[in-house]
Amino acid sequence: MTAISRRSLLFGAASAAALVLAGCGDDDGGGDTSKPAGASDADLQSALDAGGTLTVWAWEPTLKQVVADFQTKYPKVKVNLNNVGTGDKQYTALQNAMKAGSGVPDLAQVEYYALPQFALAKQLDDLGGYGSSKLDGTFTPGPWGAVHSGGTLYGLPMDSGPMALFYNKEVFDRLGVTVPTTWDEYFAAAQKLHTADPKVYITSDTGDAGFTTSMIWQAGGRPYKVDGTNVGVDFADAGTKKFTALWQKLIDGKLLAPINGWSDGWYKGLGDGTIATLVIGAWMPANLESGVAAAKGKWKVAPMPQWEAGGKAVSENGGSSLAMPKLGGNKNLAYAFMKYATVDAGAQSRADNGAFPATTAQLNSPAFRDKEFPYFGGQKVNQVLSDAAGQVASGWSYLPFQVYANSIFNDTAGKAYTGAATLQDGLKAWQDASVKYGSEQGFTVK
Fold it and tell me: Is 153 left (phi over 0), alpha (psi -120 to 50) or beta?
């Protein structure tokens, strides 16, 4: 499994160890009420000229080349890039370091769904004093909105995951099924594929929190309302029910392959045609190329199916930011590296090495959009994915304890996939458990 694929996996399979950010705004774990740090462009350049050492905690593989290039350009700077664990494992290590008051990195990779948790606990620097307002428009709306909490900027986007439909064209052609453009067509295609060949399923799903919330997002559901420590959780809204009605039909019809995502069986199913589609983030091409090499030339990419014909609304699935922990040091140098990695030369380097960018310059460049992918039979995949990045529906929020909420998804909503409950009832159980936990942590939750 590649590091890129883990971004998606962690949305739906965070470890059972709950990550508790105690205090929600007190000084515990690095929180404070001081004015945000900041620096002018001249200050940042002075920091680069003076040099120093930075510690960066991240698992994203394209950062290795960024670090090498950065150190070549600024030879007085030493960047220690450490992978202390992926996703929730890193967050636990980061929280432990914050509690101890030592060993906190200068920069840390934080996924969009986890950022509010650290931000609300006041454990990340407000980046407003570094001229970050000038970056408005640099990034696509989805990631740019995801790094803000309460109007404050807490990180710079590294990448994004606008969703699209990845499908096995060879399977669709062999079984005479049209590639769906709407969710009604998707359900019909699921029936036709499985009827024509009982070994073939439209997709696999055994319960994934990130996929579920992304689908609700696209359907217009907004189950989470967040205003500081005041939180609302409501999976009875119309958008949520629109999704559950569709997905329940797939579950009841046994039209979903009972294969866990990112398992060996999942990769095998993607390779042998058992799994005919994936509705997933734009970072997926590299994972197919590396993990399903035998299916080269069989897969294509199409826009995410819509709830209404002609619609153009998508959601995000995956993606990470770089953020500055308050207890880290070398603030000016850290921000200078952050900007280099996410906006300046590093943004192009990361796109060249397989990351799906969050920057409009890379997404809109002819070189990026017109790149032909041999794995996808020469298709210019980025044209579909770049268009999707500009169609992300607005207004989505994650819980300030989403890391924990995702970790209990399979114990609640996941029961729907075993027939022990309906999906709508499962989401109600997830809601109740999330409300209980949030209340216990000091949030006002309803």
Answer: beta
pLDDT at 260: 96
Contact assessment for residue 236 and residue 289, using Cβ atoms and an 8 Å cutoff: no
CA distances to 5, 144, 397, 399 from 149, in Å? 26, 11, 9, 11
Fold match flag (3-160+320-382 vs 163-316+395-440): yes
Amino acid identity, position 175? L
Pairing type for strands 152-153 and 148-149 reads antiparallel
The pLDDT assigned to 88 comes to: 87
Can you tell me which residue has the tokens 């890379």? 362
Q: What is the CATH number of domain 3-160+320-382?
A: 3.40.190.10
Query: Please, what is the average pLDDT of the chain?
Result: 91
Q: Which two three-digit tokens encode residue 1?
A: 């499994």
Burial of 421 (0-12, 13-18, 19+ CB in 10 A): middle
Longest dimension (CA), the chain: 67
Phi and psi dihedrals of 280, rounded to 5? Answer: -155, 175
Report the alpha-carbon distance of residue 296 to residue 307 in Å, rounded: 30
Where does the pLDDT of residue 36 fall: very low under 50, low under 70, confident under 90, or very high at 90 and above? low
CA nearest neighbour of 344 among 3, 162, 74, 8:
74
Q: What is the CATH number of domain 163-316+395-440?
A: 3.40.190.10
Closest CA to 197 of 228, 176, 180: 176
How many angstroms separate the Cα of 184 from the Cα of each of 246, 249, 307?
Answer: 8, 11, 8
pLDDT in tens, 167-214: 999 999 999 999 999 999 999 999 999 999 999 999 999 999 999 999
- Rounded CA separation 156/133 (Å): 12
State the Cα–Cα distance between residues 125 and 154, nearest whole angstrom.
6
| The pLDDT of residue 168 | 98
Of 299, 334, 29, nearest to 155 by C-alpha is 334
Are residues 305 and 314 in contact, defined by beta-carbon separation less than 8 angstroms?
Answer: no
Give the position of tokens 């439209």.
Answer: 202
Predicted confidence at residue 35, as pLDDT, reads 52
Q: Please tell me the distance from the alpha carbon of residue 237 to that of residue 176, in angstroms, as a whole number.
A: 37
Indicate the domain borders of the chain: 3-160+320-382, 163-316+395-440
Q: Which of 318, 220, 315 is nearest to 13 (CA)?
A: 318
